[in-house]
Design brief:
Radius of gyration of chain B: 18 Å
Shape of chain B: globular
Distance between the termini of chain A: 12 Å
Largest sheet of chain B: 8 strands, mixed
Structural class of chain B: alpha/beta
Number of domains of chain A: 1
Structural class of chain A: alpha/beta
Number of helices of chain A: 5
Largest interface: A-B, 54 and 59 residues
Helix content of chain B: 10-25%
Strand order of the largest sheet of chain A: 4-3-2-1-5-10-12-13-14-15
Largest sheet of chain A: 10 strands, mixed
Strand content of chain A: 25-35%
CATH topology of the domain at 16-97 and 148-215 in chain B: Glutaconate Coenzyme A-transferase
CATH superfamily of the domain at 16-97 and 148-215 in chain B: Glutaconate Coenzyme A-transferase
CATH architecture of the domain at 16-97 and 148-215 in chain B: 3-Layer(aba) Sandwich
Strand content of chain B: 25-35%
Oligomer: heterodimer
CATH class of the domain at 16-97 and 148-215 in chain B: Alpha Beta
Number of strands of chain B: 11
CATH topology of chain A: Glutaconate Coenzyme A-transferase
Shape of chain A: globular
Amino acid sequence: MALNKFQIAQRIAKELQDGFYVNLGIGIPTLVANYIPEGMNVVLQSENGLLGMGPFPIEGDEDADLINAGKQTITTLPGSSIFDSAMSFGMIRSGKINLTVLGAMEVSEKGDIANWKIPGKMVKGMGGAMDLVASAKNIIVAMMHTSPSGESKLLETCSLPLTGTRCVKKIVTDLAVIEITLTGFKLIERAPGVTADEIKSKTKANLIVEGNIPEIEI
Amino acid sequence: MNKLNKNAEDAIFDIEDGQTLMLGGFGLCGIPENCIAALVKKGTTNLTCISNNAGVDDFGIGLMLKQKQVKKMIASYVGENAEFERQLLSGELEVELIPQGTLATRCLAAGYGMPAIFTPAGVGTEVADGKETRIFNGKEYLLEAAFEADFALVKAWKGDKSGNLIYKDTARNFNPLMAMAAKITIVEVEELVEDGELDPNFIHTPGVYVHRIFQGINYEKRIEQRTVRKVD
């Protein structure tokens, strides 16, 4: 059975390590914050200018001056710090952020990512995504394996305007965990009950499958 | 040296058609509400606006878009504004979308007196089209010029009569960067205090960067995405 978006987030949370500074993008990536293991110290960065992002405020405590990069009202935690947006991208560019999780419309087998523009249709802008993918050492994409119309979002080459090139290291979809290797997409884990053949058939690029592929443990 | 202005109308009196403005804020957080209202009232047109976002349909820069006061928008993310998207797709509005970190750092460079920066953001994408690149330690970077702007419209939490500023929470965002970056910086504050009331150790923007300051009024501080949790 395919994972739902909460289970995708739960699987990505397994990539967290104690002491990590992490930037979570909008959508499924944001949900990863709900699955940080108890006792693990993970500091969340919000690129508008906050380290140590806490949970949403209790109703009535919302503060218009305290939001995350998704413009949601949030809270700070003991140990939080606030800074301007140049410093925020300074710490991203200089490699201080250990893990970046973001959504995508397409990912290529070389690790290229497209997630900011559909020509003639959607013009929203790249926000901080181009800065993040150009500098982060460890980038995980969280997305559905196929588009709503059933097209593979994993491709040999992206068809949409790129956000960054050769930067994605791992993809967690509703069907699989896939690593991007020098030779292309490699299947690492599969969703419970989903066969490697089914994942292959829904991936519009070569998918390396070696030996027995374990199921994703949630 | 008197930096004190009566109100927003007073402070923006010499902003003219066709000039380039920087507007602080991230989304609707920390935007110069009073200055925007005064500009809408003044009806200045053909403006080039540098701001991370373009407001929403009925607030922030969206109010200026509705009045067709903006000729060109330089921003990183404009997803919340239907009128913006309409003007863009119909060709009425010129738009330059640039990475958020590039936008911030081009402000920083201007305020630090540096003509340009090198950044990896946008390498290999259409953002790099026509731009000079250079390789440092095996990695490719784009050359991006410091911004040049006539005015910066900045919102701070507290400010003194010398123009020293303190921002609150994530309403800081682009405000201190833009405060440093323009020829003339106009600041509206929630709380205007006498010199000596702010601790010099905790000033975010030194007064040297600030040309005009005034006590803002009637802050709406609209929330774009009200997200809360229930008490356990």
